[in-house]
């Protein structure tokens, strides 16, 4: 028992449809988009946007490529009215962009709306009234015919004013607001009554916008509603079916996607989903979902950080770090197995091939994000992520045996500090643990002789003392290890060795990695030098110095 009184709520009745076709449809092209950021988004803000914020957001929407932008509810407030006037009078609307404005189906508001649009080249006048059962009964206290009358009167007023202002190319839009709470046959009845007034044609279509003003059911129910509506509405070829979903159940994007499969041609929404209550349908997410399926989203979203910056500045709302596609953490893997898989896939990825990288549905660089942000290290990370970070940032390609050893060191550090280990602190740790061991002895001059075997004569510097050592072996490393052994008496057995150039070109530094066993204990040494032999000898010294220091400390 949850303790909730779930009997308080009634489920939405499913649509009775024996032959629904939308589940078999595949989206192959982007719908027409309409941004309602400046209207539905704005009306949901604690503090509505200032004129300069509206101007900034409008500029972004144009840059992103919207061809229809609902810029406000000009009859509602002077700032909205003034903004529309500014756009028109200051010639701010590109030729391929159409302004859209919203009005209730009330004559005085429609008049004011047309006033605001004087001189517009082209405009969508969007008129709405609520049609849902609950609004009919409790808000408007009208029967079905009364609601149809509001819609028809509003549509007639719009048509009359449009005809009086022929210098503008008018597009009519009607929304049966609260469509998802409206009986489907009644939604069709109202819309048919409106289009009977407007008489749209295939050449001059009207937009019929079906809003999930409140998202009330699973997205498949919305898709059924859209398909049912499309099958029953009159003048289907003369109307553009648009949807406008909200996100009350967290499925605003899914509902719009299924609605497109069910016949919707146009989608209204906002950038990153600001809007009433839980928000409007997020166009960025829906467009990027299309993109990730190989479909041109018909919007330019490549500069995602700029989009996030402007939307945040205009709405004064944060963007969740895990917001689909746009959040700062969505291309970041902390967990070890994810990092390992990403690292392996990225290493195999070739730009001419289709994108196929585990855990990354799209290439972060498409949105201006860098691969450096993809893998970040904390206590949940593994060797793959650590190795990836060091390679990306510092050009070191740790051999597998050192990845294993170093990941334990990093893990310990992450557990102690309790947070993320930055690339800088990881590199510092790597240096401290494997490279920076210059005492008790460091390498001075040395000479190699190669005959049937290798011979090394080297000077070791210990404080102000110089110690000569020499040894023979199979290879320089072996010879040097034997030289140290004969001088200090402990046995050095080389277990693993690896080296590579750190940058391209002949003047590149080389790095040597070494694993040795000294008196039964494992040590790792790493050294970087322009000369590969020097790097290798220093790597041995780095390991042996660790052993000698430990021994000295044990004695002390
Ligand atoms: C789902 C949506 O997002 S719809 C858009 C909602 N957005 C907004 O409302 C923001 C802007 N709106 C406003 O600023 C105000 O509502 C205004 C200025 C437009 C109108 O203000 P007012 O007339 O003072 O008040 P209000 O909006 O409460 O009007 C309600 C009246 O209009 C009627 N009404 C409400 N919506 C509509 C409509 N779409 N068509 C016709 N009449 C309507 C109501 O029945 C009510 O009538 P009553 O006064 O006889 O009871
Ligand atoms: C006016 C309509 C389209 C609306 O904003 C809604 O229903 O959410």
Overview of the structural elements:
This protein is of the alpha/beta class. It is built from 17 helices and 14 strands. The model has no long low-confidence stretch (mean pLDDT 95). The protein binds acetyl coenzyme *A and 3-methyl-2-oxobutanoic acid. 3-methyl-2-oxobutanoic acid (KIV) binds next to strand 5 and strand 6.
Strand and helix map with partners:
Layout: E1 32-35, H1 37-43, H2 51-64, E2 68-72, H3 78-89, E3 98-104, H4 107-116, E4 122-130, H5 133-140, H6 144-164, E5 169-177, H7 184-198, E6 206-212, H8 219-232, E7 239-245, H9 252-261, E8 266-269, H10 283-292, H11 304-315, H12 336-348, H13 383-394, H14 400-417, H15 423-435, E9 442-450, E10 454-462, E11 465-473, H16 476-488, E12 492-501, E13 510-518, E14 521-529, H17 532-555
Parallel strand pairs: 1-2, 1-8, 2-3, 3-4, 4-5, 5-6, 6-7, 7-8
Antiparallel strand pairs: 9-10, 10-11, 12-13, 13-14
Helix pairs in contact: 2-11, 4-6, 6-7, 7-8, 8-9, 12-13, 13-14, 16-17
Bound molecules: acetyl coenzyme *A (ACO) and 3-methyl-2-oxobutanoic acid.
Number of helices: 17
Bound ligands, named by name, code or SMILES = acetyl coenzyme *A, 3-methyl-2-oxobutanoic acid
**Roughly what percent helix?**
40-55%
The span between the termini is 67 Å
Secondary-structure-derived class: alpha/beta
Strand proportion: 15-25%
* Cα shape: elongated
Strand order of the largest sheet: 1-2-3-4-5-6-7-8
Rg is 35 Å
Low-confidence stretches: none
Beta strands, count: 14
Largest sheet: 8 strands, parallel, barrel
Report the mean per-residue pLDDT as an integer. 95
């Amino acid at each position: 028992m949850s303790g909730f009184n779930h009997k308080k709520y009634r489920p939405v009745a499913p649509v009775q449809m024996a032959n629904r076709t939308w589940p078999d449809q595949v989206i192959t092209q982007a719908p027409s988009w309409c941004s309602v950021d400046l209207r539905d988004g704005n009306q949901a803000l604690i503090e509505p946007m200032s004129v300069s914020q509206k101007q900034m957001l409008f500029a972004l929407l144009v840059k992103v490529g919207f061809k229809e932008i609902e810029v406000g509810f000009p009859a509602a407030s002077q700032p909205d009215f003034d903004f529309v006037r500014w756009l028109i009078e200051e010639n701010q609307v590109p030729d391929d962009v159409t302004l859209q404005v919203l009005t209730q189906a009330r004559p005085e508001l429609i008049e004011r709306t047309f006033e605001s649009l004087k001189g517009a080249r082209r405009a969508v006048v969007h008129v709405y009234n609520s049609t849902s059962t609950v609004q009919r009964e409790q808000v408007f206290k009208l029967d079905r015919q009364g609601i149809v009358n509001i819609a028809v009167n509003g549509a007639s007023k719009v048509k009359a004013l449009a005809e009086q202002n022929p210098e503008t190319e008018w597009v009519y839009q009607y929304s049966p607001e609260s469509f998802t709470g409206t009986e489907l046959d009644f939604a069709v009845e109202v819309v048919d009554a409106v289009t009977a007034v407007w008489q749209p044609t295939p050449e001059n279509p009207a937009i019929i916008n079906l809003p999930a003003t409140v998202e009330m059911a699973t997205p498949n129910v919305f898709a059924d509603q859209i398909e049912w509506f499309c099958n029953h509405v009159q003048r289907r070829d003369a109307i553009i079916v648009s949807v406008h979903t909200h996100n009350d159940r967290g499925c605003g994007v899914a509902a719009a996607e299924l609605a497109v499969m069910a016949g919707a041609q146009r989608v209204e929404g906002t950038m990153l989903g600001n809007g009433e209550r839980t928000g409007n349908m997020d166009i960025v997410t829906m467009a990027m979902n299309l993109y990730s399926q190989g479909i041109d989203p018909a919007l330019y979203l490549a500069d995602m950080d700029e989009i996030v910056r402007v939307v945040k500045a205009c709405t004064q709302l944060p963007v969740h770090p895990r917001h689909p596609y746009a959040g700062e953490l969505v291309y970041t893997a902390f967990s070890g197995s994810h990092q390992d898989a990403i690292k392996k896939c990225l290493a195999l990825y070739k730009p001419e091939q289709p994108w196929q990288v585990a855990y990354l549905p799209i290439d972060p660089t498409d949105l201006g994000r860098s691969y450096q942000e993809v893998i970040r290290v904390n206590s949940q990370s593994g060797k793959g992520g650590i190795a990836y970070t060091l390679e990306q940032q510092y050009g070191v390609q740790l051999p597998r045996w050192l990845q294993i050893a170093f990941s334990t060191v990093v893990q310990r550090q992450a557990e102690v500090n309790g947070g993320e280990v930055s690339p800088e602190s990881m590199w510092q740790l790597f240096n401290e643990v494997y490279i920076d061991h210059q005492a008790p002895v460091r390498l001075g001059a040395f000479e190699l002789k190669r005959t049937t075997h290798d011979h090394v004569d080297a000077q070791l510097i210990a404080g102000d003392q110089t110690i000569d050592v020499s040894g023979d072996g199979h290879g320089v490393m072996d010879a040097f290890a034997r030289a140290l052994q004969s001088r200090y008496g402990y046995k050095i057995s080389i277990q693993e060795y690896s080296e590579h150039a750190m940058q391209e070109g002949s003047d590149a530094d080389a790095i040597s990695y070494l694993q040795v066993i000294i008196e039964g204990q494992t040590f790792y040494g790493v050294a970087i030098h322009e000369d590969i032999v020097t790097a290798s000898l220093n790597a041995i010294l780095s390991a042996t110095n660790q052993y000698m220091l430990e021994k000295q400390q044990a004695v002390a």
